[in-house]
Amino acid sequence: MPESIFQKDLDKTQANFQPQTPLSYLDWAASVYPDKVAVIHGDRQFTYAAFRERCVRLASALTGLGVGPGDTVSFMAPNGPPLLEAHYGVPMAGAVLNALNFRLDASTIASLLNHAETKVLVTDREFSAVISQALEQTDHAIIVIDIDDPLASGGAFIGQTDYESLLSKGDPQFAWTMPADEWQAISLNYTSGTTGEPKGVVYHHRGAFLNAMGDILSFGLNRNTVYLWTLPMFHCNGWCFTWAVTAVAGTHVCQRNIVPGEIFLKIKHNKVTHMCGAPIVLNMLVHAADDQKTRFPQTVEVATGGAAPPSAIIAAMEQMGFNVTHLYGLTECYGPSTVCAWQDEWGELELAEKASLMARQGVRYPTLFDQAVMAPETMTPVPADGKTLGEIMLRGNTVMKGYLKNPKATTDAFRGGWYHTGDLAVLHGDGYVEIKDRSKDVIISGGENISSLEVEEVLYKHAQIMEAAVVARPDEKWGETTCAFVDLKPGADSLSQTQVIDYCRAHLAHFKTPRTVIFGPLPKTSTGKIQKFVLRERAKDLT
Ligand code: ADP
Questions:
Q1: Looking at domain 23-171+184-212, does it have CATH number 3.90.580.10?
Q2: What confidence category does residue 356 fall into, taking pLDDT thresholds of 50, 70 and 90?
Q3: Residue of 202, 360, 435 to mutate, ligand 1, most atoms within 8 A of C-beta
Q4: Does 331 sit in the ligand 1 pocket, CB within 6 Å?
Q5: For residue range 63-75, what is the model confidence (pLDDT) as tens digits?
């Protein structure tokens, strides 16, 4: 084949090819809107110029502590300026941000700090007890920095210095550099996985840049956006909204905890336009006491995902002055990859009918290359009949680099050239996907993933328990809760439900602890495998 005219003398140079990175969004916002309010937290606020300066100081100070390219910096913090700044300051130092789920227990945190080989840990004083315990179990030295948030309750200082002092040591003129390669890691987010072993999902700059763009396009952000942080920033980097809101020079309004009264007040006073949250957050807003529901004049765009939102919740939110967008995604694909994109005809439908169409997970983000529902054994697409079940598969530039130090799990997740989500869905005639079930063994309670295996492992360690299996029990408030089926050893003393729950609570994070314990022999196949589907049915019938 002769060389095409387009293959000649048209090379990639620095003038026409640069790595895509969300760090460029901060530079842009700070140069175009330096005086605009970027971040609000309680009675503190920072302009874009000040926000950028704090991020540069952080990068400089981390470099001063010996943090270099490819090192991990972990954060144990609720939503607030430090964790938001970390999304820029850490990668500006060439390092990788690992935002921890602050609901985890000490031994899990220790195992994550070990696995991530964390060099610096920045921790909010509210979590000093659990972090002190975790640090006793780590296998290497970690530099600890405290965040002294005036809005934190309790806790002690356990680090070498505090975050604000660290920033004051940083050089505001620090000569940080953009990543040389967009494939470079930007963050590390642990997911519970299905095996009980947490998996470290690695994101690159390119994916973070693109998924933030996907958020902007799918959720309609612009320079008038006032974004309320009701979604934890530790969930997939706040589903990439940590970067997306900055890309439009919107205002980040921080929210440490889900307190409905505070949220309604902020919506009104800060003129909030957009927010995100798992269905449980919406549920809490819907069921807040009337005197907490401060009324607001604007319509607030709210995106929900992380678990299936019941259509009743969508309908109730719309009645309260919110416009709901339904997103679907996983940690492995930078948070949201899929949106139930609005169609104008739906506006004419009855609220209930409209809400049930919106409860479907939908179509791919415009920034995701491809999404399909396929039979996983043959990798053939299912017909668009709304009936045939297949697995949701994703591929493109907003799928993780892979699992840290786990090539086997990475290869397995990417078999056949697609990322296998483990979510079972049907494809409707209009091209929208709808999740019906999961092929992976996870329970999703209040938007948090719980590995059933991890809970089972704890139960199996109890001296009186012979066999245990854990499944999801449908729950109106939490979506699902953990339900344990337990068979005691022959001759064992009897155990009460409370005893089993108290035992689990001592060994697991609070949200993972079973709410229900059922005693008796477990149903098995002829080969002795526990029949989880039978238990799932039994758990359903309990409600
Ligand atoms: P996230 O932090 O977004 O919750 P996880 O990786 O912890 O991501 O959980 C991803 C899983 O959550 C998905 O595989 C799916 O089972 C479930 N999930 C996420 N979004 C939805 C949704 N909109 N509807 C139903 N299930 C969902």
A1: no
A2: confident
A3: 435
A4: yes
A5: 999 999 999 999 9
